[in-house]
Amino acid sequence: MNIITSLMRDGLSYFPHIEFLNVIEILIIAYIVYEIMAWITKTRAWTLLKGLLIIVGFTIASYLLHFDVILWIMGRIATIAVTALIIIFAPELRKALEQLGNKNIMNIFAFDSKSSEDGMSERTVDELINAAFTMSKPKTGALIVIERNENLAYIEKTGILINGIVSSQLLINIFEHNTPLHDGAVLIRGNTIVSATCYLPLSENMRISKDLGTRHRAAIGISEVSDSVTIVVSEETGRVSVAVGGNLIKVNDGEELKKELSVLLEDGKEDKKVSLLSKLLKGRGNDKDK
After folding, report:
1. What is the pTM of this model?
2. Confidence band (pLDDT; 50, 70, 90) for 116?
3. In angstroms, rounded to a whole number, what is the distance separating the alpha carbons of residues 258 and 268?
4. What is the pLDDT of residues 210-231, one digit of tens each?
5. How high is the pLDDT of residue 78?
6. Is 258:125 a contact under the CB 8 Å cutoff?
7. Counting beta carbons within 10 angstroms of the beta carbon of residue 261, is it exposed (0 to 12), middle (13 to 18) or buried (19 or more)?
């Protein structure tokens, strides 16, 4: 028995002695790491981070394979790369610091149990469908960006704040000809119209049909740099399309649009049969439309 006790004592001696302050320190570090990862996944930083991980993997492979010239080049540009990253992430870093300054000190160590967006309800989906096909009849051009997992606050800031509950009547009024808010895109987060007259990045894909106008190129452009879903109503043909993942897909009726939106907006719903993603795999992307 004494031998077993001695062995256990010797084994425990290899583990560091953890005190109460060490536990607090571990919790603080875990919270900081969590907040950083949450911030990264909600901004454009996530896309850039994936690119950085590829570069890091390439550097490790170069080290293991003894590619000395590549390692020498990587070492020389490391300092410049750090400066470039600070410049690239400047808007996001400024916003993160502003949010940190605005936080209540009592809540700073409390994890948010509620997401920043509650998800889109079925009523909101129905309102979007009703608005899209109501505007398609008189050929009222519309551009409706639906935010998903990636935060589009940088798009929101380019427009005029609305913060109104999604309704087909409100959307139709926004995009009515000769109204102050009709030009640009509407951003929807959850069940709320966040802002209108937003500016979107235009796609530079040379394979896109020349028949497509600025509205459709903007829809494809935002889908290339984010995971958003964008509903487009053509001002020339009245055609309703959906842009996602850099592709533009025509939808024929409200039932088809509802099916596609349900697949794209509901996480974990893999039992849907005819989805927009399956159409993309079949090569129906970038359909010609105006």
Report:
1. 0.61
2. very low
3. 17
4. 778 889 999 999 998 888 899 9
5. 79
6. yes
7. buried
**Token pair for 108:** 């700073």
The neighbour count for residue 240, using CB atoms within 10 Å, is: 23
Length, in residues, of the chain: 290
Dist CA 251 CA 241 (whole Å): 6
Question: Is 50:107 a contact under the CB 8 Å cutoff?
Answer: no
For the chain, give the secondary structure using H, E and C: CHHHHHHHHHHHCCCCCCCHHHHHHHHHHHHHHHHHHHHHHCCCHHHHHHHHHHHHHHHHHHHHCCCHHHHHHHHHHHHHHHHHHHHHCHHHHHHHHHHHHHCCHHHCCCCCCCCCCCCCCHHHHHHHHHHHHHHHCCCCCEEEEECCCCCCHHHHCCCEEEEEECCHHHHHHHCCCCCCCCCCEEEEECCEEEEEEECCCCCCCCCCCCCCCHHHHHHHHHHHHCCCEEEEECCCCCCEEEEECCEEEEECCHHHHHHHHHHHHCCCCCCCCCCHHHHHHCCCCCCCCC
* CB 143 within 8 Å of CB 215: yes
User: Nearest 5°: CA angle at 281, between 277 and 286?
Assistant: 85
